[in-house]
Design brief:
This protein is an alpha/beta fold. It has helices at 2-7, 10-14, 20-33, 35-51, 66-70, 118-128, 144-150, and strands at residues 57-60, 76-80, 89-90, 103-109, 129-138.
């Protein structure tokens, strides 16, 4: 546990355990402070944006809502289990509240590894997608280095 805290950004380390709003604010501060983080993610956001079909876009587990803020010319329904500044709908991704065949696109960025039952999330999203719809996801590659780092990831 001490190594996990040592590797955290100072803003995140300072957030009180269990204070979800403080944690979200801390992640927002890290995002604003780290130019290189924004550079790489915005590069990936462009690729994600190019892969999306016309129609409804739902971002699952949007966290602080960086993607929906970046793609503000599109109407994106940002969802998360926590109520954040850019979150439109507070939901548990395991129980997506959308009708079968009603969503054109799902986007999930760095979130699948946080899901207790990832296959349940993917199966439910597949039910909600329109025929030919897209699920566009960015997730960490579990290289030997990443496997070591993720042992300390929340």
């Amino acid at each position: 546990m001490w190594l996990n805290r040592l590797l955290m950004n100072p803003e995140v380390r300072a957030a009180k355990v269990g204070d979800d709003e403080a944690l979200l604010r801390a992640h927002q501060q890290v995002w604003k402070r780290k130019h290189i983080l924004r550079y790489y993610y915005e590069t990936w956001y462009k690729l994600i944006d190019e892969a999306l079909l016309p129609g409804t876009i739902v971002e699952i587990a949007s966290g602080i809502g960086n993607f929906s803020s970046w793609a503000d010319r599109r109407k994106i329904i940002a969802t998360d289990i926590l109520c954040g500044q850019n979150v439109a709908v507070v939901i548990d991704a395991h129980y997506l509240p959308f009708s079968p065949g009603s969503i054109s696109n799902f986007v999930m960025i760095d979130a699948l590894h946080h899901m207790a039952k990832p296959m349940q999330v993917l199966a439910r999203a597949a039910e909600c997608l329109k025929p030919g719809g897209r699920f566009v996801m960015l997730e960490s590659y579990m290289s030997p280095w990443a496997s070591l780092v993720f042992k300390f990831h929340h």
